[in-house]
Amino acid sequence: MTKVANLKPHHISVLHYWNKGIRSARKIHAATKIPLSTISYQLKKLRTEGSLQHRKGNGRKHLVHGKCSQALGQFVRRNNEITLNELVEKLRDRCRLTVSTSTISRHLNRFKYKNCLPVNTPMLTPEHKQRRIEWVKEHLNDDWTSTIFTDESSFQLLRNTIRRWSKTPREEKKRVPKNRQKVHVWGAISYRGKIGFPLFQNIMNSDYCIGILETNLISNAKK
Predict the structure, then answer these.
(1) Helix, strand, or coil (residue 210)
(2) What is the average pLDDT value for the chain, to the nearest integer?
(3) Domain ranges, ordered by start, for the chain
(4) How many C-beta atoms surround the C-beta of residue 46 within 10 A?
(5) Residue whose C-alpha is closest to residue 64's, from 102, 92, 104, 96
(6) pTM of the predicted structure, to 2 decimals
């Protein structure tokens, strides 16, 4: 009896009838609705090879192989933001190999590379992180019922669209400067809830900050 491991559904169906002694392509076609030509091919393969397992090495060879494959890997590792069109040009110049962007994409996918958009993260240094941890530890047991926290955040008008090749796409992050062209929002929270929520595009200097505090913080904090 032929093994069914790693077989496709229509292979398993044909093999089922083969093992029951049914060797007529038309009878199997009538019972399964599998194309007659497909059944005939599978029956012929069973008669000649005794198996429907895929023979390794009988497919079309990859266009990108050997030194060209190594070169492609080097291009991506040196610059993981390189585009498919740029890779096509580099392979043409370096290896005298002309392939399509889809061929390169399939090749990179075989090597577990994914094309992803990195997550923007602030440029926090190890020192910044350590100082924040120390501050939290120092104030862990403070009474926050009479404390107000204020901060401003920004929304970038033009989002980052530069994609990357990565084997760990969920871990891809892009370090970005804090001050970019953007829309700003100021807000404050306390033990009782949020306080104010103005939007602005001005540069946050001392005078503008005082104006926001006078207009939003003082009046809302009294409520």
Answers:
(1) helix
(2) 82
(3) 9-49, 66-111, 145-156+179-222
(4) 18
(5) 104
(6) 0.39
